[in-house]
Amino acid sequence: MKNTVTTALMYIERHKKAASGAALVLAVVLLFALVNSPAVVGASATKRSLPVYSVERDGKFVALSFDAAWGNEDTEQLIEILQRYNVKATFFLVGQWVDKYPESVKQLADAGMEVMNHSNDHAHFAKLSASEIVENVNACNAKIEEITGVRPTLFRCPYGEYDDNVIETVQGMGMTAIQWDVDSLDWKGLDASQITKRVVEGVGPGSIVLFHNAAEHTPEALPGIIEQLIADGYTIVPISELLLSGEYSIDHTGRMHPAA
Predict the structure, then answer these.
(1) Based on the domain organization, do 218 and 152 belong to the same domain?
(2) Which of 55, 101, 229, 231 is most exposed by smallest CB count within 10 Å?
(3) Which pTM does this prediction carry?
């Protein structure tokens, strides 16, 4: 495709003086059609900046993550369940939630859970400028660091919404944007068996699973999910331990791969 576009440009250059107006217009139309063809646009789209949805790893590893934005009914119960199975999970906290429940933030950190950033106020980040994103993320980082002593390195977009500006700005802050490839849909009021079925059937090596605190049936479903994952040979790790270190690439599905 690159050679074809180059040829069209050369044709225009060689004939712009001698060729008739109609011929020149034809060449320009040809060039416009080439660069806007589905193949070229599709190739450009594959370069979109993406968060990490899953990770290619040797072995069967999986990460469990929880978003905390609103209530706090079951955080202590979730911690107890995870500790019972010696599982470390990643919790993405909204700054306003941190303001309301600082004791729960400390409990999470003291239990060995990863405490990461889910924005300061659960805003629609795709509507924010780069400077607004930096200010928002840093505000939440500061709140978490003040309580835990550790500054978050991972960020999850509110509502799962993002664009190139969001991802590139977060990366520019030295943080990694994290999505998920298995959604429990626990926030929709699914019962425990439905949540369990979605997670167990959806998980693959390198998966990141999304749960929420304050979801009605998540504490009921979580023990069975953990037991089934362990029985299936999975090692459950926090997201920072699932991610690759060193050089890597992220494909069009958001899967992180080791550099070739």
Answers:
(1) yes
(2) 231
(3) 0.82
